Amino acid sequence: MSDTAGSAVFTCVLFAASVAAGVALTVGNPEAGQQLLELFREAILGEVLDSTAPVLAAMLFFNNLQACVVMFLGGASFGILTAFVIVSNGVVIGSIVELVRQQQGGLYIAAALLPHGIFEIPAFIISGTLGFMLARSLWNEWNQKGDAAADAFRMGRTFLLYVLPLVFLAAVTEAFITPGIIAFVA
What we know:
globular
């Protein structure tokens, strides 16, 4: 398995396990899930709920881009920061998804997540993968087996070509399309 494929598989497994942990946390302790939801509302939703769709799209774009940049550049911490961002986001997402599923049902979750999630989750996975690849590249250079700066340049180009457009499409979809789909199923 190539380094890229191995990093991608690791990122996917870490994210899926984190989402599952968030779901399990909320199933086992609904109050903890409610606390995570309140924290999410205060930190993220409080700023965006009353915004117009264009402002909402811009805020979502910059918030998600920031998370993706931290995941990618977090590889410079030998992947520790990358893993932390993946795990913390996965637990919060899993917890909120479970709470909303309990209250609104699975169809509502699908309507709320699938339209923009088809862009946002790949951006998230690619960013995490790039972060772990950067960590590996730094490790290899430290052991005189590579050129981390050249690798980081190539990875940065990949980030710009793939992650940036995916985050943009996710933000536009979430701001302009998802609300209509939710209204249709609610």
